[in-house]
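Class, discuss our next protein.
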Amino acid sequence: MLIVTTFLKLFGVLTAVALLVAIASGYLVGHAIETVTHVIVGLTAVFTGMLLLSILMFYLIGTGSAIKEAANRKAVPEEDYLETRKFKVWLFPPIILALVILIATPILGAAYDTGRIELYLHSFGAWFCFIFYTFVHLKSRTVLTANRAIFENAVNAGKRE
């Protein structure tokens, strides 16, 4: 499971960088790049973020189920399973909010492009999206590390049975 957690952590950093590149490209529209380039970069960053957060949720649900089964067999302490539930309670609400913000940011961009809102609203949304996504990513790194240890303990306990 080290590979999966490492992938999720690395993918999270790359997504944060992609969001920053999308923001930077927005400031370059009309000077060094075309609007379509900013749109492509921005949508790619948003879809990447949405994919990562979805994979993260499914990973935590899947490992939590395996830990629950191990706890039901008494292979690991029930506290381990309860700890993984706390991870989800602690992390899932910010993930859902991050998904909503990721979806809202290009919508704000489209609203600006059609003249319905001022540019500062889209810019504020983009920066807020980056900051909140980074917050969720940093939170998830802590959870992934702790969850991996519990999951590996459950897997090893299953091998001993």
